[in-house]
């Protein structure tokens, strides 16, 4: 067997990856102030609108999905 | 022009020869078919041809315009990729049905009349059923059975609609229909079922994950997208589609977040993506239709890529649940890379194909000042990245190490994924050629600073939410469980129906058996053999005078055979016939 990749086995690599990820978020937040916006809706032009919307959307998504799970979750053999 | 063979026929006739060949010849033959079909497409000028007169109607096998050409191109491209991916499968059933299936999709795309359309439409349903059956497990058999029944229902709706349409308009040719009258509604429902519009969607998430590894690749590409084509042809600008489309983008992502089976996550995200297309068709402006068509084009490639990469995992490990997988990047790095490219494309990252197509639909919603729709579509875009973009690769290739050590799939599978991945990136970097073949002239620039940064923010901060929720342990845990969907109504309802029919019809059966088949003939037999004493016995029983000399011998017939509820099928057919009758007599 070929040698395995193990880069994410080392916690410092995971940390490095996350660090890079957080840094890119900060860059995106800063760049937002320097671009020309051609907004169709007024709020599109608001600073950091998409960052906030993306974050809130995904938190809401998970929150509602967890709620939904209470009602729709069944055993794997439910239909058998 | 008539010297060329229709592209659908190349696949369908070609499929018949596949079982006669072996080894490399067979592989080469199968790969040549889509190439031939593509070459035919390139040489097809716009117009209507391959017209065959049949029962006073014209069957048109070649209605060629810009709309049908785009779908023709992508169906042949994805067929080539799918065949390459399936090349090493030693199962002629799968090869033949996949080729027939591709032929059916091309047939639907180029039909200019309802008769030929309907034939190809049913061919789609039947041939794809065999791609599920070919998995040869008990669950796949059951899923295939449900799949074909749902599609037969959809096909009947379409057929009934077509009959009303032909009755009203006097022609079998079709183009724009629009919602007016019962016929158009029935056609709409028939197409909507194949497009997996809720609540008619559950067949998709039920059946696709049960299909064979290679069959799912074809299925992800052909059925829903031929329905998208037909919807764009017949119902553009139908306002209802804007709203069902928007709902369709949002609803499945909640399911996808909770789902354990990776291919079912992809099935839900497929519904979500087709939702964008339905929304675009509903908006119906040139920009929206261009967006829909280009999104279908890109979607077919990245969805096939995702089904191929997760299918490779299933093929190599035999496992496909989040709970069973994890850490596979160590031994399948290339498959992992292809999966990530597919994931980035479906998430519409800049420089990946979804970015240059989906944004057109969202822009069209903004131009139409559809605020709520725009907000839902943006929400769904963030949600797509969440489940298809992060969850699928994360739980399969990263996450907890499942301890599974395997290797990359065979070369032909890697090549097929490589081609799809290359196209996903190439289309995004050079969108010009795709934009050139769209139905309307394109005046759209995807790469503006605001669009790139806005989209990146939306996605990356969605990823941040994922990251923080996972680290906080609040992310819904991977669980061995299923989630109820609208298929509950026919999976449980079907059983209830069966139970009631069993009790009622078998009750009638038993009663009839007891009275008509046993008691009366028995008594009549007795009467004919010993008329006097039988009558005396009867007289004594009725009047109570004297004693019966012998009991009635009713056992003159052999035991009846099985009492299986055959009546259920007959009753169902009767109900359908009656409904058709009602539709024609009272409504048409």
What's the SSE blueprint?
The complex is a heterodimer of chains A (80) and B (588).
Chain A: H1 11-31, H2 49-72, E1 73-74
Chain B: H1 7-17, H2 23-42, E1 47-54, E2 57-64, H3 66-85, H4 92-110, H5 114-133, H6 138-169, H7 181-194, H8 202-207, H9 215-234, H10 239-258, H11 262-283, H12 286-317, H13 333-346, H14 354-367, H15 371-397, H16 411-429, H17 432-436, H18 449-471, E3 482-483, H19 487-529, H20 531-543, H21 566-587
Antiparallel strand pairs in B: 1-2
Helix pairs in contact in B: 1-2, 1-4, 2-3, 3-4, 3-9, 3-12, 3-16, 4-5, 4-9, 5-6, 5-9, 6-7, 7-9, 9-11, 9-12, 10-11, 10-15, 11-12, 11-14, 11-15, 12-13, 12-14, 12-16, 13-15, 13-16, 14-15, 15-18, 19-20
Describe this structure in words.
The complex is a heterodimer of chains A (80) and B (588). In chain A, 15% of the residues are buried. The model of chain A has no long low-confidence stretch (mean pLDDT 87). By secondary structure, chain A is mainly alpha-helical. Chain A has one domain (9-72). Chain A has helices at residues 11-31, 49-72; one strand spanning 73-74. Chain A is flat. Helices cover 56% and strands 2% of the residues of chain A. The longest helix of chain A is centred in the last third of the chain and has 24 residues, at 49-72. Chain B is mainly alpha-helical and 588 residues long. Among the domains of chain B are: 236-476, no CATH class; 487-587, no CATH class. Chain B is 71% helix and 3% strand. Chain B has 21 helices and three strands. Chain B has helices at 7-17, 23-42, 66-85, 92-110, 114-133, 138-169, 181-194, 202-207, 215-234, 239-258, 262-283, 286-317, 333-346, 354-367, 371-397, 411-429, 432-436, 449-471, 487-529, 531-543, 566-587; strands spanning 47-54, 57-64, 482-483. In chain B, helix 1 packs antiparallel against helix 2 (23-42) and helix 10 (239-258) packs antiparallel against helix 11 (262-283). The longest helix of chain B has 43 residues, at 487-529. Chain B starts with 6 loop residues before the first helix and ends with a helix. At the A-B interface, helix 1, helix 2 and strand 1 of A face helix 10, helix 14, helix 15, helix 18 and strand 3 of B.
